[in-house]
Amino acid sequence: MAARREKTRRGATGSPPRNPCLDCGACCVVYRSSFYWAEADDATPGGVPVRLTVRVDTFRRAMRRRPDGRCAALRGVPGRDVSCAVYDRRPSPCRDFEPAWSGGPAGARCLEARRRLGLDGQGGGKLQRFDIPHVPAKLDRR
């Protein structure tokens, strides 16, 4: 399975083209993913790993953030090569997030996240390379 996933990520001949989100990750840096508490694996078997969440209030949890502001489940270098460590178990806001390249109206949030991180904002094209030494504390994490 890992070999098949890597082949797909490279866009090898005969496999689907590489998903542009695997070269971005801006949404995982800019926005906080908060969700209903019962989506976590202490309430729902196979749910979001509770160790990667923090309690927001009585009914909500959020994905834990790293000191640099990134989601704790984000792996790799944003803007270059990223993946989600809990992709199959990610919370509903992550499942429902609409990327700009999909062409839907909600893709504007994707473009805004990309703009905040200095990406080209076009979605689906060649990404401008960047490194994130840290994320300014003033970024909206909603």
Description:
- The chain is α+β, with helices and mostly antiparallel strands.
- The protein is built from four helices and five strands.
- It has helices at 2-10, 26-30, 92-96, 108-116, and strands at 34-36, 53-55, 60-63, 74-77, 81-84.
- It is globular.
- The model is unreliable at 1-11 and 121-142 (pLDDT under 50).
Count structural domains: 1
Oligomer: single chain
Major beta-sheet overview: 3 strands, antiparallel
Estimate the strand proportion: 5-15%
Summarize it.
With 142 residues, this protein is an alpha+beta fold. The chain has one domain.
Q: Key features?
A:
globular, 5 strands, two-stranded antiparallel ribbon, alpha+beta, 13% strand, 20% helix, disordered N terminus
Outline the fold blueprint.
Elements lengths: L1 H9 L15 H5 L3 E3 L16 E3 L4 E4 L10 E4 L3 E4 L7 H5 L11 H9 L26
Antiparallel strand pairs: 1-3, 2-3, 4-5
